[in-house]
Amino acid sequence: MKTIAKTLVSVCVASAISTSALAETIVFAHGANQGNPRYEAAEMFAELIPQCTAGKYDVQVAPSATMGDDAEQLISAQAGIINMSANSQGTTAQIIPEVGTLGLPFLFQSESDVWRVLDGEIGQILDKKAQNAGLKIVTFWDNGFRNVTHTQKSIRTPADIKGMKIRTPPDEVALDIFESLGANPAPLAWSELPTALRSGAFDGQENPLTNIYSAKLHEITPYISMTGHQYQSTPVVAGLAWWESLDETTQNCVTSAAKQAGWYQRGRNMFEAKRLKAVLESEGAIFSDVDYAAFVKATAPVYEKYETQYGNFLKKLKQASEK
User: Fold this and answer.
1) pLDDT (tens digit, 9 = 90+) per residue, 42-86?
2) What is the SS3 assignment for 9?
3) What are the Cα distances from residue 173, in Å, to 47, 74, 183, 266, 317?
4) What is the CA angle 130-104-292, rounded to 5?
5) Helix, strand or coil for residue 35?
């Protein structure tokens, strides 16, 4: 009996090693640091995939831009170097321009409005356009509503932004928003932002509170003005060639895992955005509210440009956001 037991144990161990060795690895890259909800959601995705594929696939998470910045990750996904990326809205819009319209100024009033729109027809339309560009949008996670930070002063009215050297992501809509406010915006990769702020290349930047806190940007730009001028999503994308190589069961598993992790990420992001105000204040941040109506009025001309470029799509997007 002891011999039989030892044999069974040996078989089980060999089987486990064999299964592990045969598991195919999904490389999932993103640019967030530990402590950011996007980082945590990627780890959750990595836990879910082996479960729903019965060990056929595992996930190698590459956080903190270790596989390149967002633009490099998208190129790598298209080329099959990596499989998936939790990317940025602005960078994704360089390949799928309509994605950028999600960030039109003051388009959304709340996170629940955003989720309803992106999980419906608008998200499906954007996915079809992504596939024409060699990418598959699996789902949308949150980045959140963005707020302006400054090294030396609070921002309360559009006049306070005039002439401000402000870093934005490589996002055409964000650039248009701040140009309409009279600022001097310039795009810069996320990974280079802290150094650029410390050097004085910029007076400030704009990001959701979760990103501001996880990157410790409040230590460099302590004045945080709650403009909420723009919402940005986190498109979770896959390389289309890799995606189409998967069988339907695996595709469903990847989609389900990404969405489950996404609901966690969305909830954490929304909760953190509320909780972090007190935390940031305790660490020296100085908050100010803004003249919301004045900002809405000042940025309204931004819509004219995009209505010309994306008339039919933008009409659907605005109708969906207003329901």
Assistant:
1) 999 999 999 999 999 999 999 999 999 999 999 999 999 999 999
2) helix
3) 35, 19, 14, 23, 15
4) 155
5) coil
In three state form, how does the secondary structure of 147-207 look?
EEEECCCCCCCHHHHCCCEEEECCCHHHHHHHHHCCCEEEECCHHHHHHHHHHCCCCEEEE
Q: How far apart are CA 139 and CA 35, in angstroms?
A: 22
Q: Return the residue matching tokens 């001097």.
A: 184
Handedness of CA 34, 39, 41, 47 (dihedral sign): negative
Please give the Cα distance from 249 to 255 (Å, whole number). Answer: 10
Question: Among candidates 62, 61, 29, 60, which has minimal Cα distance to 236?
Answer: 29
Question: What's the CA gap between 77 and 73, in Å, rounded?
Answer: 6
Residues counted in the chain = 323
The position carrying tokens 């964000």 is 174
- For residues 258 and 139, is the Cβ–Cβ distance under 8 A? yes
Q: What does the block give as tokens for 19?
A: 């299964």
pTM here? 0.88
Provide the phi-psi class of 132: left if phi over 0, else alpha when psi is between -120 and 50, else beta: alpha
Residue with more model confidence, 130 or 35: 130
What whole-number distance in Å separates Cα of residue 59 and Cα of residue 198?
36
Q: Going by C-beta distance under 8 Å and a sequence separation of 6 or more, which residues neighbour residue 309? A: 97
- Cα 30 to chain centroid distance, Å, stands at 9
- Number of neighbours of residue 272 by Cβ within 10 angstroms: 20
Tokens of 170: 């490589």
Q: From the CB of residue 292, how many other CB atoms can be counted at a distance below 10 Å?
A: 13
Q: What share of the chain is helix, strand, coil (3-state, %, to 5)?
A: 55, 20, 25
* Whole-Å CA distances, 35 to 209, 216, 220, 311: 12, 11, 19, 39
